[in-house]
Amino acid sequence: MKGTVNLNNFTQLATDYVSTKQRKRFYEVVALTEDNLKEVIYLQPFSEDECKAIRSLKDNYGEDHYIDHLDEVFIDPEDLYELSYGQDIVHIDIDNPSYKYKFALHEFDNNKYTRRSLDVIMDDEQYIKALSLFLSDSEMNFNKLQFACSFLYDIIYSQIVHTLCDERFYFGSYPFLITMDEIRKDAMNIRAMNPELECQTGIGYYCNI
After folding, report:
1. What secondary structure does DSSP assign to 94-134, as a single string?
2. Residues in Cβ contact with 119 at an 8 Å cutoff, skipping those fewer than 6 apart
3. Which residues contact 199 (CB under 8 A, 6 or more apart)?
4. Could you give the CA distance from residue 21 to residue 44 in angstroms, rounded to a whole number?
5. Most buried residue among 10, 19, 36, 169 by CB atoms closer than 10 A?
């Protein structure tokens, strides 16, 4: 069977599942690099108390000046340094948390496959979209994702490729494939809880390249 699938029901199942999924929240700390003043993002796992304290700084000092008072929250200079590794912080987003999900990089090295587990950052909307696609297509994989949702594919692919880079130079020496381990596991859990779901196979996606 080829064609599109109505994702509404799958999206709701994915949304309900993600709402109860135990995850660690990470928040964006935006800083400027020392050499060329380009923005770089660090993800930090702030506690609820730290988030509340940062909000209080914003309320007390305003958006333009709260950064100058972060030492009131992170009293230990080492903790403050580790927020951005000493680079000048320009913004902290505590309203839009992201989460790390498990993927795997499988490299073909000298006729042997080596597997390396990797974390990929996704927000709720992105993860729910990926999960709903796995529910709608039981044969979904990373290669199919390029055509099922190119935007999501690019988000994941760019993060994984950057693990093979150093100083913006790519050093990957071996061909590889990517598996979406945590998404697949969550899709299997949802199917186990909803045995009435059909396993859709043979689904094709328009090849736009």
Report:
1. EEEEEEEEEEEEEEEETTEEEEEEEEEEE-HHHHHHHHHHH
2. 100, 101, 102, 103
3. 138, 191
4. 20
5. 10
Provide the 8-state DSSP code for 26: E
User: Is pTM beyond 0.90 here?
Assistant: no
- Rounded Cα distance, 80 and 99, in Å: 22
CA angle 146, 152, 153 (to 5 degrees): 35
Helix/strand/coil for 91: strand
Each residue of 164-176: pLDDT tens digit? 988 778 999 999 9
As a whole number of angstroms, the distance between CA 4 and CA 206 comes to 9
Q: Measured at the alpha carbon of residue 28, what is the angle toward residues 100 and 59, in degrees to the nearest 5?
A: 135
Distance set, CA 156 to CA 19, 23, 140, 200 (Å): 21, 18, 15, 24
Q: Return the amino acid letter for 145.
A: L
The set of residues, in sequence order, having a beta carbon less than 8 Å from that of 105 and lying 6+ positions away, is 115, 116, 118, 160, 163, 176, 178
